[in-house]
Design a protein that fits this description.
There is one protein chain. Helix content is 38%, strand content 24%. With 179 residues, the protein is of the alpha/beta class. Strands 1, 2, 3, 4, 5 and 6 form a six-stranded mixed beta sheet that branches. Helix 1 crosses helix 6. The longest helix is centred in the last third of the chain and has 17 residues. The chain is globular, with a radius of gyration of 16 Å. Pathway: Porphyrin-containing compound metabolism; protoporphyrin-IX biosynthesis; protoporphyrin-IX from protoporphyrinogen-IX: step 1/1. One of its GO terms (molecular function) is FMN binding.
């Protein structure tokens, strides 16, 4: 069984989340092929299941994610599929579900693809790693939302147990419902 895992990451944290999911997917019997978007991805029709992870930057998922979905919508709908978003809003307990996270809700409202499973995880805040403009934009957003604004902040808001559980649950679903 082959699983395509697509990751759209700006500063690398979403790729780290994908790497943490990989052992659970492999333990369920999947050969995982990981690919970074926006690089030219393989055709999802060649896989038994597809998992897409995307980060938020300046309030949006990478446009390449939606372009991929629009191009391969029928292949995505024809096999077990999942989507997860990594964003700093999800650090808040009342914004860390697909139903309560504004970015995931907007994604699901605008996407022609409706994945079988959807997850959302808090991201990493590391001001020193950001480009100057991004650092100030993110700091302003954090200030507006009563988040950390100290430029020395390096905080990981990811619930790694939830990441593992999401991967395990999707792997089981995909195994039972594979294309």
């Amino acid at each position: 069984m082959k699983l395509l895992m697509l990751c759209s990451s700006v500063y690398g944290h979403t790729s780290t989340v994908c790497r943490h999911m990989r052992p659970a997917l492999e333990a369920a019997g999947f050969e995982v092929v990981e690919h970074a978007l926006p690089d030219a991805p393989p055709d999802p029709a060649e896989f038994d299941a597809v998992l897409i992870g995307a980060s938020i930057r300046n309030g949006k998922h990478n446009p390449a994610v939606l372009q991929f979905i629009e191009r391969y919508q029928s292949a995505l709908q024809a096999r077990p599929s999942a989507f997860f978003s990594v964003n700093l809003v999800a650090r808040k307990p009342h914004k860390n579900t697909p139903q309560t996270n504004p970015y995931v809700r907007k994604f699901l409202e605008t996407s022609p693809w409706q994945p079988d499973r959807v997850g959302v995880f808090g991201g990493q805040l590391n001001y020193r790693r950001y480009r100057r403009f991004d650092r100030w934009v993110i700091r302003f957003i954090m200030w507006m939302n009563k988040g950390p604004t100290d430029l020395d902040t390096n905080a990981d808001f990811t619930d790694w147990d939830a990441v593992r559980a999401f991967a395990e649950e999707f792997a089981e679903f995909a195994r039972q419902n594979r294309a």
